[in-house]
Specification:
Blueprint lengths: L1 E5 L7 E4 L10 E11 L1 H8 L13 E2 L3 E9 L11 E4 L2 E2 L5 H4 L10 E2 L11 E5 L3 E3 L6 H4 L2 H13 L7 E5 L3 H12 L3 E6 L3 H9 L5 E3 L5 H8 L2 E6 L4 H7 L3 E9 L11 H6 L3 E4 L7 H11 L1 H6 L1 E6 L3 H9 L5 E5 L5
Parallel strand pairs: 11-12, 11-14, 12-13, 14-15, 15-16, 17-18
Antiparallel strand pairs: 1-2, 1-4, 3-5, 3-9, 3-18, 5-6, 6-10, 7-8
This protein binds zinc ion (ZN) (2 copies).
The site of one zinc ion has 8 residues, from α2.
Length: about 350
């Protein structure tokens, strides 16, 4: 089968023929992949930016951790009734035997392996995954939108961490897929949302077409004036990964406001902590969602399918995976989906 793999530590990924996985091991299922999304993490891995060194042990490894497909075969100890089920998969797999796993702290597992990072992922015709990581999809949810589940759980975690409520004013920094997803979830909670980008016309235009009307592009130099007018904000959610934006936008956070950081930053940010203290503000980090938030996210996608499908800006077959990565890198795309099996 064709697979997009990382073969060695260093820049680059390759599309090549590999042997399909054999029957799934005990506790796991074999999934025919239909739809798989390209994420910022895949770009980092392709470009080999620092932070992914531990992948070395898994190489050669197939990338792809945001996906949906159909269970084709089950391993020992897995109910046969799962065959034929349409699923999306939590990519974080745990060892089941370490101390954290023993007390049910899935996130604390010391031997956690990410599907598509530390073990073979979904940029291929087939992928194996633990049955316990699979979430069965409602019949009404199409697989292209279902492949957005993993990144949307990141958005849900951010909105929950920021404690976004109805009637609040929320500023979202960065209009990439994560920022767009956060904006959609915050609006669904009844908050008034302002989204700021920097030379981001295509992605801000997409938000405009979804009826967001407070959109600021830093390129035109009027952003500070607009933020002063639209703020102060109850919550600022940063999804741009630009350290300078933290100090530049903190002045627009109201007293006792919450600043939530979701982006991955290449270097530390400088923050006026005395001002933070006097304003009684909080800075919080938000990362992986709780497994229990997956069902909530799937339900949201099911009921907001038309809006969410609009965030899929580009589609490629697996043979176009390298082009898909290139489009993602150019900040034109919201979400690039690889259509691997037939769309359904
Ligand atoms: Zn991702
Ligand atoms: Zn463990």
């Amino acid at each position: 089968m064709l697979a997009l793999q990382k073969l060695r530590p260093g820049p680059g990924v390759e599309l090549l023929q590999v042997a399909p996985p054999r029957s799934p091991p005990p506790g796991e299922v074999l999934i025919k992949v239909h739809m798989a999304g390209i994420c910022g993490t895949d770009l980092h891995i392709a470009q080999w930016t620092p932070g992914y060194e531990s992948m070395k042990e898994a190489m050669p490894v197939t990338l792809g951790h945001e996906f949906a497909g159909v269970i084709e075969e089950v391993g020992a100890d897995v109910p046969g009734a799962l065959v034929g089920k349409r699923v999306t998969v939590r990519p974080s797999t745990t060892c089941g035997v370490c101390e954290a796993c023993g007390i049910g702290d899935e996130d604390g597992c010391t031997r956690r392996k990410g599907i598509g990072i530390g073990r073979n992922g979904a940029f291929a015709g087939y992928v194996c995954a633990p049955a316990g990581n699979c979430h069965i999809l409602p019949d009404t949810l199409q697989l292209d939108v279902a492949a957005l589940t993993e990144p949307m759980t990141v958005c849900l975690e951010a909105v929950q961490t920021a404690e976004v409520r109805a009637g609040q004013r929320v500023l979202v920094l960065g209009p990439g897929f994560i920022g767009q997803g956060i904006a959609i979830l915050a609006r669904a909670r009844g908050a008034g949302v302002v989204i700021a980008g920097w030379d981001d016309a295509p992605r801000l235009d997409l938000l405009r077409s979804l009826d967001f009307d407070h959109l600021l592009d830093g390129k035109d130099g009027t952003q500070d004036v607009a933020l002063r007018k639209l703020g102060p904000f109850d919550a600022i959610i940063e999804a741009a990964g630009v350290p300078a934006l933290v100090s530049a936008t903190l002045p627009y956070l109201r007293k006792r406001g919450i600043f939530t950081v979701v982006g991955i930053h290449p270097h530390p940010a400088e923050i006026d902590l005395t001002r933070l203290v006097r304003m009684h503000q909080q800075i919080r980090g938000s990362y992986r969602a709780n497994p229990s938030d997956w069902a909530k996210t799937i339900a949201f996608l099911d009921t907001h399918q038309d809006v969410m499908r609009r965030l899929i800006s580009h589609r490629f077959p697996l043979t176009g995976a390298l082009e898909g990565l290139e489009v993602s890198r150019r900040r034109l795309a919201s979400k690039v989906i690889l259509q691997i099996g037939e769309p359904s």
